[in-house]
Amino acid sequence: MAQTGTDSEQLSGALRRETVKKHVGAIHISGKLSLLQRKLSNVLLLNAYDTLQTSASHSIDAKTLAMIVGYNSNDMDTLRASLKSLAETVAEWDMLDEDGKQEWGVSALLSYAKLKGGVCEYAYSPVLAQKLHDPKIYALINVNIQRNFSSGHGLALYENCYRFVRTGSTGWWSLETFRKLMGVEGSSYYESFKHLNAKIIKPAVAEVCKTSDISIVPEFRKKGRAISDIRFKIAENPQLAMFNIDDSDGLRASKVYEALLAQGVSDRLARQWIAEHGDEYIAEKLSYVANRKAKSSLGYLTAAIRDDYKLAQRPKAPPPSDRAIAAGAARKQADQAQARAEDARHADRRERVRKFAIVAELVAARNPTQRGADRALFSSQLSDDLSRDDFARNSWGSALNARAIFEFWEGMVPGCFDAD
């Protein structure tokens, strides 16, 4: 399937986020999901997350959905088949409820899905929607990283390991549980640990370490002479810089973000406030609210941020010195330079998106024989294995090879990128 580059500036609403919260019960899915189906379920959840418990159904433009998942936006047959499979797949959870009692349940991943007028409409069962939205236990699945996976087993292992990145280990899973998480339970072939290790564990571990933002190492425990359990040691991947990921989650590392969540502010609104006003301004309003009693601290905090409530004025400070004025002017110049650089980066990003869209149109216009020849010719021009591997995974949507791709197609179709 053709890969297409995506950029958050093309998207709106929840889809501008790069990470989706997946509840433990949702990550541990009973059923055999293909790579495309697993990616599709993550994007559908990302799109619906904010209104999971307030809306009976959710919708997304079908071509946008295809673009984010990473396949040909005109291939509606594949999309229909994948949605049908999600509606036929059972999600099973086995967990402790708020009272510490064991709770088991099952539900179809989607209660229904339909395509009409270029729009995909879908819904979750009420009980599954509640589990998916529960903020107490979740993992953050990066939908940019998931595009790099080429196997369903690799992505499944990434999802099931990522939520343990802070603890450094998944804990022990029985091989029976592991087979279930990988979607190979019931297969007599994978009852053999030798086959399971060679065909599932080793390839999936290699893909997670090469493709994602974590590195994992499997460890095994024996019962007698046979392997009975498996766990994975987890660390952040030092090669994360290799991935062209615009990580908006840096905001989540601040103390102000944690304080906002403690006040009942949603993840999305907390990051929006910090991005719009800065840590210092939000910290000031948190301090203001903390010194006053209000029936609704969240409502009061919202008003304080909106209307710039201030603490009692301190004595007027003396006028700034010449040195402070000069330092302020220097900071202003630096801020302006940074703003210009940021504007230039945004302009460059928009231009890259525009050119990738043109490349996608040019490729679509070629017949299959020509497409194969184009790919072979371009790949032969790449000078290193990293570039060739990225092109093999992402085809003409390879961000790593963007400049070379644009030069190649400019040579093939002179003037193709000229603005109208």
Report on the architecture of this protein.
This protein is of the alpha+beta class. It has 17 helices and ten strands. Strand 3 and strand 4 form a beta hairpin. The protein starts with 18 loop residues before the first strand and ends in an 8-residue tail after the last helix. 29% of the residues are buried.
Question: How would you sum up this structure in a few lines?
Answer:
This protein is an alpha+beta fold and 420 residues long. Helix content is 50%, strand content 15%.
Produce the secondary structure layout.
Blueprint: E1 19-23, H1 24-27, H2 35-48, E2 58-61, H3 62-69, H4 76-88, E3 90-96, E4 102-108, E5 112-116, E6 119-123, H5 126-133, E7 138-142, H6 143-146, H7 152-162, E8 173-174, H8 175-182, H9 193-211, E9 214-223, E10 226-236, H10 255-262, H11 267-277, H12 279-290, H13 297-307, H14 322-364, H15 368-381, H16 385-394, H17 402-412
Antiparallel strand pairs: 1-7, 2-6, 3-4, 5-6, 8-10, 9-10
Order of helices and strands: EHHEHHEEEEHEHHEHHEEHHHHHHHH
Tally the helices: 17
Helix coverage percent: 40-55%
What general form does the structure show? globular
**Rg, Cα atoms, Å:** 25 Å
Extended strand count:
10
Largest sheet, if any?
A: 3 strands, antiparallel
Provide key terms for this protein.
alpha+beta, 420 residues, three-stranded antiparallel β-sheet
